[in-house]
Amino acid sequence: MCDEFIQFVRALYEEPSAPIPLHVPVMGTPEKEAVAAAIDSTFVSSVGAFVTEFERDVAEFSGAKYAVATVNGTAALHIALLVAGVQPGDLVITQSLSFIATCNAIHYCGADPLFIDVDEHTLGLSPSALRSWLERHAECRMEGTFERATGRRIRACVPMHTLGHPTDIKAITTICDEWSLTLVEDAAESLGSYVGNAHTGTFGRMGVFSFNGNKVITTGGGGMIVTDDEQLAVRAKHLSTTAKKPHPWAFEHDEVGYNYRLPNLNAAFGVAQMSRLPGLLASKREVASRYAQWCEANGWTFVSEPQGARSNYWLNAVRMSDRETRDAFLAATNAAGVMTRPLWTPMHRLPIYASGLRDPLPVTEALAGTLVNIPSSALANGRS
Ligand SMILES: *Cc1c(COP(=O)(O)O)cnc(C)c1O
């Protein structure tokens, strides 16, 4: 069974023998020319025309009014949470099934993550689990929402669009409104994913993208905060640029800020990548549909985009019947040079985040033990 899968992947990528990676960036002449132009301009660091252009491109693509570029997605999350008003001692609701950046950003603010289970079909934060937990454990007061047992403020909610598949963000938005929680979307994996006609990351007060080397497009390293709120955008830019007050020559900083601005070199790379994005998304969709067909024909479970949503199919995934089958599949494919990976170890299983508050997480546990990511790069014909 694994052999047939391996043959299929090798045929898909027209690669009879060399190792097939999980996800590779697509880059070439446009990126080289853009980076060269940044060098020629002498603006290679955190000021430059490409940073502004890249922000404009991402804002326009996502339909957000404002975009603020940062050195990576983790920094974007950190700034977004600070701007959302997250303070030391706060609780921030999120999913345990995520890359560690989500929890780390919460921790950098001095707050603690509070884990709610994910939904079996979207792989993202479950609205019904969220509502049920809030009804059982939280109370709304004049000043905000508090956890009853500890009296701690629950400030924000950070759902994540897992593997690029949009979570049920409309239902989560409604719940966050009802409970006065600031919604910040971790859309790091979901550039090019939509719910209805709206881009992921534009439902919350802020959304965050990543341009790390393994994401749909890359800037080498980079991130972006998007928002429709001008004040939040201004504050995010201020905090991410060392909180320097605008002035023709003086260095005055009005609070402790961060040196998180995306360098112009990386932004130049990003501008070139943005013009490839539609082609990459089309190619990744083609890959996903070929996998879906193969899985259907062979009785495997392929993870498809949720109903009513359009996924960027960043990382494709298959679901195995149990952990043993999954481990055998991981061993066989990796030994054959076809790179596959399990999902992240859930955050509540890591000693650093194990002691926090959480609801039971049966779906998180089940998915973490059975999902496998399979090679998902754009096809060669989508790379010119
Ligand atoms: C990639 C990613 C981030 C941000 O990662 P950086 O490497 O800092 O850009 C944040 N959250 C999730 C879920 C991610 O996958």
TrEMBL record:
Coiled coil: none
Family membership: Belongs to the DegT/DnrJ/EryC1 family.
GO biological process terms, semicolon-separated: polysaccharide biosynthetic process
InterPro entries, A to Z: DegT/StrS_aminotransferase, LegC-like, PyrdxlP-dep_Trfase, PyrdxlP-dep_Trfase_major, PyrdxlP-dep_Trfase_small
N6-(pyridoxal phosphate)lysine carried by residues: K215
Residues forming the catalytic site: K215
Protein keywords: Aminotransferase, Pyridoxal phosphate, Transferase
Single GO MF descriptor: pyridoxal phosphate binding
Name of the featured protein: DegT/DnrJ/EryC1/StrS aminotransferase
Top-level lineage group: Bacteria
Species of provenance: Halothiobacillus neapolitanus (strain ATCC 23641 / DSM 15147 / CIP 104769 / NCIMB 8539 / c2)
